[in-house]
Design brief:
2 copies of one chain form a homodimer. Chain A is 48% helix and 15% strand. With 289 residues, chain A is an alpha/beta fold.
Chain lengths: 289, 289
């Protein structure tokens, strides 16, 4: 593939941003990557590993960038856009990798000189590792990346962002920010909150002098794996997707209540019917990730 | 180790029962294993794989057994004990492998000619596979097995059951049936109900014409893995451990409500504090299984 971007400024050189930079450089989609971030030690790792070409110390990181990628926690993105705007060209495209799109894309459009050049994106990939040291060129290969243009978005800007993600091996799908948020609230944000709540409910408790967590088997461990995710990231996602996540929580509570009612009333047939329906769906889902 | 049991009757030759038989035979703890079960094809597999020495077609399976192991869904155990009692010796020890102990052990004590010879046990091991074909001799190696004698239990009977589980490599711990149920309600039964409810909440729904489950990533997949477990087994466990599971559900709801309150009120600091506390606990738990 030919070069898409002469200069890309990457704010936040962690697992997602660093992997994108590494993959884009390997595929020769990007001529130069300028790295910007909070922690000098992490940027040094990124430079040593060849994720970025150079480190920028301040908002001049945005100078002469064709594309700026915000790969920081969601709540930081709009503030970064404000800092970068004075240094960007009129045509610079601004994108992000956040797990929330509706509120974030609206904030970025409001913050950017030309809102037509803002394109939200969300690669659905990652693992529990963090930082530039965890970046992998193949992280997005075969994984889904959702791109969320709005009625204001310049089609050429959306095409550039799509091409970047396709170039690093992702399957790209386009939908509105609102549809993205409604879907992700159910299949991602809800399971995260539930996993955090499960750990919270069990943590620190004992029974007859025995620490409950000493008895956690593989079921508990799997069900709560995502509760090891960074609190700061999930705080921002929960706050950024409140209405859809609130609706998802209500749906989840209704399902749990129905199971508990069948159990409490001793309705074995209803309980088995509900469990069997869920088990069948989950078995079809398999072990895909 | 020397032979502990001349003849063991195994009712239910699935993953747990079959693995116990295979491991006990390999370790020469048992001279003869008689298999009993619902499905002839599964018993044939067990015979071919050498899990059992012979198949018994009816309750005479219990004849001359030193030890009867009930490894069927929990709700079936008491009925089986009733069927076997006329054929058992006065000294035959009756044990089980159920995930619920309080109500089940009480039922077995009531059903057995000599309640002192009843010893509840629960090996905390397993995977999503099922049937004699899934049995593995090493399934219990290094895993916990909880043995739950009551004030009525004959110490010699409890020692026999402990020795069997230690002989197949399990770490054996003794506690009351009530303590077992309180602990397992939190670390096992609750996560199962939550996982089933998560799948139920998402299954069959779509958003803007898109099937939600098509967007499930590794987080959803891990969090719901145990919802693929057999409905019949978990119906019985939920019904058999109602009071403790009800209490566990209340604790979980309180934790989830607190997270949602912080989210709904936009209290970023409280939300991050709760998520961070859970993440720290979960990180310490690691990937153990």
């Amino acid at each position: 593939m030919s070069v898409l971007v002469e200069r890309m400024t990457l704010a936040g050189v962690g697992l997602i941003g660093g992997s994108l930079a590494l993959a884009a450089r390997k595929a020769r989609l990007v001529r130069e990557v300028v790295g910007f971030g909070r922690t000098r030690a992490n940027l040094d790792v990124a430079l040593q590993r060849g994720l970025i070409d150079r480190i920028a110390a301040d908002e001049a990181a945005a100078a002469d960038a064709d594309l700026i990628v915000l790969a920081t926690p969601v709540a930081t993105c709009a503030r970064l856009a404000e800092r970068f705007r004075a240094h960007a060209r009129p045509t610079t495209v601004l994108t992000d990798v956040g797990s929330v799109k509706g509120s974030l894309v609206a904030e970025l459009e409001a913050a950017w000189p030309d809102p037509r050049r803002v394109v939200g994106a969300h690669p659905i990939a990652g693992n529990e590792r963090a930082g530039a040291a965890a970046a992998e060129a193949d992280l997005f290969r075969g994984r889904l990346c959702i791109v969320t243009p709005t009625p204001r978005t310049d089609p050429a800007a959306a095409t550039l962002v799509r091409a970047l993600w396709e170039g690093v091996g992702a399957r790209v799908e386009t939908m509105t920010p609102e549809t993205h948020d409604a879907i992700l609230a159910r299949v991602s944000h809800l399971p995260h909150l539930v996993a955090y709540a499960l750990v919270t409910a069990v943590a620190g408790r004992d029974e007859d002098g025995r620490t409950l967590l000493d008895y956690a088997g593989s079921g508990f461990v799997d069900t709560t794996r995502i509760a090891a995710s960074p609190a700061e990231v999930w705080r921002d996602i929960a706050l950024g997707n409140r209405p859809a996540l609130g609706a998802a929580l209500a749906e989840f509570r209704a399902a749990l209540d129905a199971l508990e009612r069948a159990m409490a009333s001793g309705d074995a047939a209803a309980l088995e019917r509900m469990l069997a329906a869920a088990a069948q769906v989950r078995q079809r889902l398999g072990a895909k990730s």
